[in-house]
């Protein structure tokens, strides 16, 4: 079979692209506000029932901040199993060994886990910025950016799920009217607060 025969062709009026290239952060002006919300987590299993399945721990700041906003959280899945994760807001991400040192110290000194086993890990990073040049909302006349590259991430928190739902609803409303899908998130009255908190996180840690 010729390699060219493996290629399929698709046609559509519009293409919605949710892929985000971290290199787009290089488009940020020197004066702009930009942080990575980066995280690393352990799926932790213990020989004894340690985790309280009725209570999750959210944004526990009892770890060394080291000039950045750092916190851990615990999502119990069973009495002997839970996700323990650290999240950091900073301009640079850490090495894997640095994350593991934070989690190891948290499990030992804050959670007092004792013996435990790490069965799985997860890692990621989310852009937090109010600078529109980082996101190419329109990638072509018929290619529309959606989700993270479409500016749906809330700049001060990194949260995006509900904002993506609003973004999609906004786009569908435009399509139903026969209009070009909007490429901008609707302005909200909390934009100023987002910019202020992002500035504080970046410059005052």
Please give the structural blueprint.
Blueprint: E1 15-17, E2 34-45, E3 57-60, E4 69-78, E5 81-90, H1 96-110, E6 117-129, E7 138-140, E8 143-145, H2 161-176, H3 191-204
Structural features:
five-stranded antiparallel β-sheet, 8 strands, 3 helices, 205 residues, alpha+beta, single chain, three-stranded mixed β-sheet
What is the element string, with H for helices and E for strands? EEEEEHEEEHH
Q: Give the helix tally.
A: 3
**Estimated radius of gyration:** 21 Å
For the terminal residues, how far apart are their CA atoms?
58 Å
Give your account of this protein's structure:
There is one protein chain. The longest helix is centred in the C-terminal third of the chain and has 16 residues. This protein has 205 residues and is of the alpha+beta class. A hairpin with an 8-residue loop joins strand 3 and strand 4. It has a 5-stranded antiparallel sheet. The model has no long low-confidence stretch (mean pLDDT 85).
Summarize, please.
By secondary structure, the chain is an alpha+beta fold. The protein has helices at 96-110, 161-176, 191-204, and strands spanning 15-17, 34-45, 57-60, 69-78, 81-90, 117-129, 138-140, 143-145.
